[in-house]
Design goal:
Elements: E1 6-17, E2 20-31, E3 35-39, H1 46-53, E4 61-66, E5 69-70, H2 75-81, E6 82-85, H3 97-107, H4 114-123, H5 139-151, E7 157-161, H6 169-185, E8 189-194, H7 197-203, E9 206-211, E10 214-219, H8 221-227, E11 231-237, H9 243-247, E12 252-258, E13 261-266, H10 269-279, E14 285-291, H11 295-303, H12 317-328
Parallel strand pairs: 3-8, 3-9, 6-7, 7-8
Antiparallel strand pairs: 1-2, 1-4, 4-5, 9-10, 11-13, 11-14, 12-13
Helix pairs in contact: 5-6
Bound molecules: adenosine-5'-triphosphate (ATP) and magnesium ion.
């Protein structure tokens, strides 16, 4: 596809914070009208990529174009054409939904905004709550409002940083439908970050798996998944084991150790597990995990670690809002 067909193009995109390289020579091409996902663990560099692409933070090295404009040389052109839904809350709780939209219009210096605002409220089914303070909205309604604000100036590209973090599964599903809807209905290119495997799989046309600032794999979710056809069995034991012993188990095609864990590849975990239990002292196993082919297993295959280490996403969103509110007072 030509560069014209691309909403975002980056070559050698690099961001350093002192000695730390948060984004490391990233190559990127996001087709217009698509949904592109950055999937990676905490600290991988996802938010930093959004910050440099939106001009919030200067690029250290390399070059990037967003909506046809050079991020470093034409930052104002870029800012006019992008919307941003931050991971943290940006709503003003003491203002109504409509007033939040008004405030956003002032910040963006929009003169013609009321028609668009009305349309967005309708689309997000918030019309009848427009005169209520946003502080009284449900979690899902607040998230919708944040997306509405980001769409007010009719951006070509919208950046969503962990749009569903901490949300309960129902609200998360609702948001998935909404994100796909916004992409199709408003023709907006979406770049989202996530560390939820199913989310990237369900929503994205293309996914870049990112680790330590580098893109370790890029493709459609099915292309990426087809790279790993086998199951993974990952376990930790205090028993002394050798690679040879594990390799000798029928059905095991590959063995490696990673920190305290062993990672086995097998065409069928169901067949191998009983044999594994026979070969090992089961009372010395601390942890065992089976991973069927998924974007997670692609990440495990490349890095030996998991994307979602758990724990990071159990935070209650309401608690998070409370903290933000308290910090403001
Ligand atoms: N302003 C900053 N100054 C110094 N280091 C920073 C700054 N912002 C980010 N970093 C570092 O850059 C790396 C990437 O951070 P980033 O926030 O982009 O990760 P992330 O993939 O968004 O992680 P998470 O999933 O936790 O949001 C981290 O090591 C982080 O500590
Ligand atoms: Mg982040």
């Amino acid at each position: 596809m030509s560069a014209d067909g691309m909403a975002i193009v980056a070559h050698g995109l690099t961001k350093r914070y002192g000695k730390l390289t948060a984004v490391d020579h990233v190559e990127m091409a996001v087709p217009r009208g698509s949904v592109f996902g950055l999937l990676g663990p905490n600290g991988a560099g996802k938010t930093t990529i959004i910050k440099v692409l939106t001009g919030l933070s200067p690029i250290s090295d390399g070059q990037a174009t967003v909506a046809g404009y050079d991020v470093s040389r034409q930052p104002m052109e870029v800012k006019q054409r992008v919307g941003w839904v931050a991971a943290e809350v940006i709503l003003d709780d003491d203002l109504t939904g409509w007033e939040n939209l008004w405030l956003q219009a002032q910040l963006q210096r929009l003169s013609e905004w009321k028609g668009r605002a009305t349309q967005l409220l309708e689309y997000f089914e918030l019309s009848d709550r427009r005169k209520d303070k946003v502080g009284t909205y449900s979690t899902g309604m607040r998230k919708k409002m944040e997306i509405a604000l980001a769409l007010l100036h009719q951006p070509e590209v919208i950046f969503m940083d962990e749009p569903t973090i901490g949300l309960d599964p129902n609200v998360r599903r609702m948001l998935w439908t909404l994100i796909t809807g916004v992409n199709k209905e408003f023709g907006v290119t979406v770049l989202l970050t996530s560390h939820y495997i199913e989310e990237a799989d369900a929503l994205c046309d293309h996914v870049a798996i990112i680790d330590l600032g580098k893109f370790v794999a890029v493709g459609t979710p099915s292309e990426l998944k087809s790279r790993v056809k086998e199951d993974f069995i990952e376990f930790e034991t205090s028993e002394y084991l050798t690679e040879a012993k594990l390799r000798a188990i029928p059905g095991v095609s590959n063995v490696r150790s990673q920190g305290n864990a062993w990672i086995l590849r097998a065409s069928s975990a169901e067949e191998v597990l009983p044999r594994l239990f026979q070969a090992l002292k089961t009372d010395m196993i601390h942890r065992i995990n089976v991973e069927k082919p998924s974007l997670e297993s692609v990440f495990i295959d490349i890095t030996g670690r998991r994307i979602d280490q758990g724990g990071a996403d159990v935070q209650d969103y309401r608690k998070f809002y409370m903290q933000v509110r308290r910090a403001r007072q």
